[in-house]
Amino acid sequence: MDSHLLRFKDDKLFVFIDFETENLCLNFNNNMPWQMAMLKSKGGKKTDEQDLMIQWDRKIDVSPEAARITGFSYDKYNKLKTPHEEVFKVMEEWLEEADYIVGHNILGFDMYLISEFYKKMGKSAMHLVDKAIDTYCLAKAYKLGSEKPSQASLIEYQYTLLGIRKKGLGGGLGAMGKSFEIDHDYSKLHDALVDLELNLKVWNKLKMQLEI
Amino acid sequence: MVLPLFKSHYSLGRSILTLEKKETQLTNGPDSIIDICLDHEIKNFYLVEDSMGSFLQAYNNTKDEDLSFRFGLKINVTKDRHEKNEEALKTSSKYIIFAKNEDGYKKLIKIYSDAANAGFYYVPRTDFSVLRELWDDSSLALAIPFYDSFIFKNTLGGGECIPEFDFTDPTFLVEENELFFDSIVRKRIESFCKNKHEIQEAQSIYYKEKEDFTAYLTLRCMNNRSTWNKPNIDHLSSDEFSFESWAEKEGVTFVKSPLHKPKLRMPEEDTEAIEVKEPVNTIVKLTKEEINQAVHWGNARRDTNVNGELKDRSHAGKPMGGSWRKNDIIATGSEIAFAKFIGEEFTGTVNTFNGADVGEDWQVRCTDVENFSLIIRPQKDKGDKLKEKFVLVIYQRNATFRIAGYQVGENCIKEKYLKNPGGNRNREAYFVPQSDLIKF
């Protein structure tokens, strides 16, 4: 009877994605991601992962504050960087293949960077929007005890939640992990892949709590 | 047909376009909607603003051109404009009311005045009872904007907006700006309008070229008291709200901003009104970056002279700053200061004594003596060079310059100006006093 709920869709491919960026601007004019991590999941379990440093046609300029938060190091970046064309190939393949694209605040941030990346490569990412699952929005729904209205699609419902701003809600990834008592190394948050591993664990809890 | 919906800087913080007269744009200055339309042979355009302020300038600056516009007021319509609480915000959404004629314009003023007075709650708001009372299809037309409409807010913003269309039949505008929710909103609009209301493709235009997005972002950040690195403005990612995007969609050949020759805005002849002329600030102080630029190019010029490439030995007076190297740095600084004054870009040249110093036809002359004259030297300033404008810039120390005035070279070749203060052979020159210069 409840087979339409996401928690029962064990055959579906969920791709989790997270970017680490120079700053918080939503346009490539002023902000390039320097790291992209992706994680594939089926039935709530990790099946594959990617962690790539991205090389652009200009130098990366990470502010000292962003470098401190994300642990960015030019040495590590220069050693591991991959040309953005190659990173795009991987990203496009994974996202097109995915049934759902998951991220924490993906609708407010990462989706714009995905769109900018597609645009840079002469393509459009607009068709991906219906696949998006934003665990930050859904965390708000969980915290507020909100239910998805029957007439709204999942993406519409998530956009409605995105606009809700309430202090002390505790919808951040770390806060959600702790509130669900998830075992994780919280000191390493803001490393893209580490974030995604926690994101998967949070999603596995959230999907059981919400009727979506 | 995609309707071009221009917005000007009168909608505070929402557009970087102006409504200045045609061809008065300064290099690197803001683009005028009027220039854009004339350059692209657009005869009619739509001006959708958040207030009534721009109407007068738009009217004055289009009336002598082969150009007309339809003015639209984008305004919040709420359930009851007298209700002023957080709940009332949920029932408020945007509508565009277009004036079809003079009567419509007068009605728009009434609607806006009431909204800004009786209905004001964070922003001007009106309600359907006001619209119903003033409405007349012969003078007004109603359109539903794509963003922030009742459909947009109800679908994506948790709104509780109930539209009332018993007094008119609105047109719904749809846009495509590469934002993820565009397709979601479009679907909802199509479903709502099916067999009931007209749908019209449109394009909101806040800047001319896609690359102007950075300038637009800067303005939005300034208004939001945030920074480029952390704009904190939802969904501000697309550079599609440009005229260039409209041109692409319409298949119109896009003309980039022409490099207009800088025009000094001289007071217009107006016999009807007595105009109080604002004094022009002629003092220019260089920034640290500009000082570095002056040092770089001044040194380059001096080195060129020392190497004898140009053999410029025609100066008779003492060097500014006490040495010829400092003299060249200050002289370069004066060119940078003047370029900044007229909104031109200083390009930096070393070996062009006969070419223009700034722009296409400006020769810059600098002195560090406050009341000194503009000097035209017959040995060097001759031929076509005399058709150019010679501007006198006074160096006042501390990287500060005063733009004293200018004169066309030909007008300086007068016997009354001819002097030879040092009494040296072949050192006669034309000394034009500051009182005979054209002031800015």
Q: What order do the strands of the largest sheet of chain B run in, or round the barrel if closed? A: 1-2-3-4-6-7-8
β-strand number of chain A: 6
Low-confidence stretches of chain A: none
Q: Biggest chain pair contact, residues each?
A: A-B, 31 and 24 residues
Any idea of the CATH class of chain A?
A: Alpha Beta
Instruction: Name the average pLDDT of chain A.
Output: 91
What would you report as the Rg of chain B, rounded to the nearest angstrom?
28 Å
Could you estimate the helical fraction of the residues of chain A in percent?
Answer: 40-55%
- What is the CATH class of the largest domain in chain B? Alpha Beta
Taking all Cα atoms into account, the compactness measure Rg of chain A is 17 Å
Structural domain count of chain A? 1
What gap, in angstroms, lies between the N and C termini of chain B? 45 Å
Give the structural class of chain B.
alpha/beta
Description:
- The complex is a heterodimer of chains A (212) and B (440).
- Chain A is an alpha/beta fold and 212 residues long.
- Chain A has one domain (6-209): Ribonuclease H-like superfamily/Ribonuclease H (Nucleotidyltransferase, domain 5), CATH 3.30.420.10.
- Chain A is built from 8 helices and 6 strands; from the N terminus they run βββααβαβαβαααα.
- Chain A has helices spanning 64-70, 74-80, 84-97, 106-120, 135-144, 154-162, 173-179, 192-209, and strands spanning 14-21, 33-42, 45-55, 81-83, 100-103, 132-134.
- A 6-stranded mixed β-sheet of chain A has the order 4-3-2-1-5-6, with helices on both faces.
- In chain A, helix 7 (173-179) packs across helix 8.
- The radius of gyration of chain A is 17 Å and the shape is globular.
- By secondary structure, chain B is α/β, with parallel strands linked by helices.
- Chain B folds into 2 domains: 3-250, Alpha-Beta Barrel (TIM Barrel); 283-436, no CATH class.
- Chain B is 28% helix and 19% strand.
- Chain B has 12 helices and 15 strands.
- Chain B has helices at residues 33-39, 55-62, 86-90, 102-117, 128-134, 150-156, 182-193, 213-224, 243-250, 288-306, 324-342, 409-412; strands at residues 3-6, 44-49, 68-78, 93-99, 125-127, 140-144, 171-174, 198-205, 283-285, 362-367, 374-376, 389-395, 400-408, 418-419, 429-432.
- Chain B has a 7-stranded mixed barrel, surrounded by 4 helices. In chain B, strands 9-13-12-10 form a 4-stranded mixed β-sheet.
- The chains are: A alpha/beta (212), B alpha/beta (440).
- Chain A binds chain B through residues 22-27, 29-31, 63, 107-108, 111-112, 115-116, 119, 124, 126, 128-129, 132, 152-153, 155-156, 159-160, 162-164, and chain B through 155-158, 178, 180-184, 213-214, 217, 228-232, 234-239.
